[in-house]
Design a protein that fits this description.
By secondary structure, the protein is α/β, with parallel strands linked by helices. It has three domains: 56 residues, no CATH class; 193 residues; 177 residues, 3-Layer(aba) Sandwich (Rossmann fold), CATH 3.40.50.300. It contains 19 helices and 13 strands. Strand 9 and strand 10 form a beta hairpin. Helix 5 packs across helix 7 and helix 7 packs antiparallel against helix 8. The termini are close together. Pfam families: AAA_31. Keywords: ATP-binding, Kinase, Membrane, Nucleotide-binding, Transferase, Transmembrane, Transmembrane helix, Tyrosine-protein kinase. InterPro entries: AAA_dom, Bact_polysacc_biosynth/exp, P-loop_NTPase, Wzc-like_C.
């Protein structure tokens, strides 16, 4: 008996299969999230961003005369230009320029000016500067301005650039201006002192000559400073003025939708992987071996049937034909000679048990085996609809030991069990007979298992194989009551759907019923994940022997 509590190892194949099974859900989730994000951002007002490039360079040249006569601003330290956008004089100059933008309405102009003031306090993002310089003050800066109007954004970027260049030049004039003001104060003091010495006569006093000489020197120095003040240059130069941008930078609905979709895909994938890790399911023959079960065969998932085409007809085309044929051969090889009865069951509804039962019976009959297909699933009978027109036009044949009077025929399982002497079956084709269950039965109706076992003893000797389409084991007790009277039980599972603990419970129930479990048939698998390239279940040959679970 396998212990399901053994530590799991990392199985990338299992994780990959879990992702593939849930791929369409993950893609749908990503598409929905991406579409919602796209619609949300598409409704927002577009924002345009205009850019200018500023060059910061040292003004020292190779000409000593130029260097001695040219006054330049000191190199910009890191972060100085970014901080200049908070300077009240810079903001004031920009706001003065904003008033001249005629394309703005008064309300838009007021809002823009409020945003600029908010930017000075670090709360806005209308204008920003990025870039850096080296220790010598050489480098480049990019100034970006944003606005819903592309032309306004370009105008705003150029206004901010002009304001920063003016601020930089004023930064270089500060020392010269301070020196000029000091000289002007000294000249005013000299004039006051001269006036105290009295009127200037033909003969100057010693103090008057001294004050006049000082005034002349200070006047020369002031004239030089005035010339230098006009020649002061900054360290910033405009490389490329801003032009109106063509495409908005915000919102970006396509980019945001792609990012949101990828994020949703990642989250849903993580959820699928977590769920697969926490909920262990049967996905491969390795999982079956861990439960002492063998894989008898694999049947691919059938495509959606076209109008007027049955699933059963599709099962006998292409690789599905080979897969069902291999399954039939493997099951027939493991089935004891007597009783020659196969009970088909599953763990969950929707595993395709009934379709596979019909396909298996059809394949056995096609190989020359006299086959009887019994529908013992009273709650969900589907065999009549699976066979379609073949069941509607079938001839009726008497079952072994039956000789009904006209009009007294028992043509369904319930009636046949009540009156075996009047039992009849549908002759679907050569070597294949079918007894169906009435389609309208109360959910409380139970199969008369004693009568069913007695009927099997009468009917099975006339056939090479009897296939019973039974309900899921854990749903009702009927399969457990029938199991001791059959040659073997074939479990139909859909990989990745059946939880391992549920399969363990199913096996425990069959073991308590003393059933001979032949193995498992995987149904609805992806053909690309099949165990062999030619057919499904290839490798379980005629020398296989029936094996009870745990043997």
């Amino acid at each position: 008996m396998n212990d399901l509590h053994t530590p799991d190892v990392i199985d990338l194949t299992r994780s990959w299969q879990a992702l593939q099974r849930s791929a369409w859900i993950m893609l749908l989730c990503a598409a929905v999230v991406g579409g919602a994000v796209y619609a949300l951002f598409k409704q927002q007002t577009p924002i345009y961003e205009a850019s200018t490039i500023l060059l910061s360079a040292s003004n020292q040249t190779g000409n000593q005369t130029v260097n001695s006569t040219l006054v330049s601003a000191p190199p910009l330290p890191p972060g100085a230009l970014e901080g200049a956008l908070s300077n009240i004089n810079v903001i004031r100059d920009i706001n003065v320029g904003v008033r001249s933008i005629t394309s703005l309405s008064p309300a838009e102009r007021n809002e823009l000016q409020r945003d600029l003031v908010a930017g000075a306090t670090g709360q806005g993002h209308v204008i920003r500067v990025t870039g850096s310089t080296d220790i010598y003050g050489n480098g480049t800066y990019t100034l970006q301005a944003r606005h819903p109007n592309a032309r306004v954004a370009a105008r705003l970027a150029n206004l901010a650039t002009d304001a920063l260049v003016a601020w930089d030049a004023q930064r270089g004039r500060e020392k010269v201006t301070s020196a000029r003001r000091a000289l002007e104060a000294q000249l005013r003091d000299l004039e006051t002192r001269l006036q105290r010495e009295g009127p200037l006569g033909a003969t100057l006093t010693r103090n008057q000559r001294l004050l006049l000489d000082q005034r002349a020197n200070r006047t020369d120095e002031l004239n030089n400073l005035l010339a230098l003040e006009r020649a002061v240059v900054g360290s910033l130069a405009v490389v490329a003025p801003a032009v109106p941008p063509v495409t908005p930078v915000e919102p970006r609905p396509t980019r945001n939708a792609i990012i949101a979709g990828l994020f949703a895909l990642f989250v849903s994938g993580a959820f699928v992987l977590a769920r697969a890790a926490l909920t262990r399911t049967i996905t491969s023959d390795a999982d079956l071996h861990a439960l002492n079960l063998r894989l008898i065969g694999e049947v691919p998932r059938l495509r959606r049937a076209h109008q007027g085409q049955s699933l059963l007809a599709m099962m006998h085309r292409g690789k599905a034909t080979d897969s069902v044929a291999y399954l039939a051969n493997a099951v027939r090889a493991q089935l004891p000679e007597r009783p020659n009865i196969i009970l088909m069951t599953s763990l969950l509804p929707g595993d395709g048990k009934s379709t596979l039962s019909a396909g298996l019976a059809s394949s056995l009959a096609a190989s020359g085996q006299r086959t009887l297909l019994l529908e013992a699933d009273l709650r969900h009978p589907t065999q009549r609809s699976l066979w379609g027109i073949a069941a509607d036009t079938a001839d009726w044949v008497n079952m072994p030991g039956a000789a009904p009077f006209p009009g007294e025929e028992a043509r369904d399982l319930q009636a046949a069990l009540l009156n075996p002497a009047a039992a009849q079956a549908m002759k679907l084709r050569d070597n294949l007979h079918l007894i169906v269950t009435p389609t309208q039965l109360s959910s409380s109706v139970r199969l008369n298992t004693d009568a069913f076992a007695a009927a099997l003893r009468i009917w099975s000797p006339a056939y090479d194989v009897v296939v019973i389409d039974a309900p899921p084991v854990l749903a009702v007790a009927d399969p457990l009551a029938i199991a001791p009277h059959v040659g073997g039980v074939l479990i139909v599972l859909e990989p990745g759907k059946a939880p391992a603990r549920g399969v363990q419970r199913l096996l425990d129930a069959l073991e308590l019923a003393n059933a001979n479990v032949l193995g498992v048939a995987f149904n609805k698998i992806n053909p690309r994940h099949a165990g062999s390239a030619y057919g499904y279940g290839y490798g379980y040959g005629a020398d296989a022997r029936p094996t009870r679970r745990g043997a």
